[in-house]
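STRUCTURE REQUEST FORM
Protein name: YjbQ family protein
Source organism: Mucilaginibacter segetis
Requested output: structure tokens
Priority: standard
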Amino acid sequence: MQIHQQTIQLKPYKRGFHIITSTITDALPQIRQMKAGICQVFIQHTSASLCINENADPTVRQDFEMYFNKTVPENDPDYLHDDEGPDDMPAHLKAAMLGSSVTIPISNGRLALGTWQGIYLCEHRDYGGQRHLVVTAWGE
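Status: completed
Returned output:
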């Protein structure tokens, strides 16, 4: 069994949902040598998240942003945590809803994503800055 791990520092992304699949595969080329395995991607932040969804039509990502903004609005007077601005607490809630990691099978040297699937960085802050991911792949 092989185990490989790489920490990735992403460039700052604007608020929204961004496909980062190729960033993940480029950062851990050892995946190409694995016949079968698992790849886990973990984000080291509490105001951004990861998920897997549609990789072709950009309107899906726009609709994700619209939905989460309606579901978890800014400036709710009941929020107690607002030290870093009106997008702070909503960003934490959105990240908790989507999660901090994704796990993908590796098959014949590739992430075994479906035809229309991609890995999203879900940036929930207006100015989230650089984000850090830990990518771990293990297999044979």
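Reviewer notes: The chain has one domain: 2-139. The domain at 2-139 is CATH 2.60.120.460 (Jelly Rolls).
Form closed.
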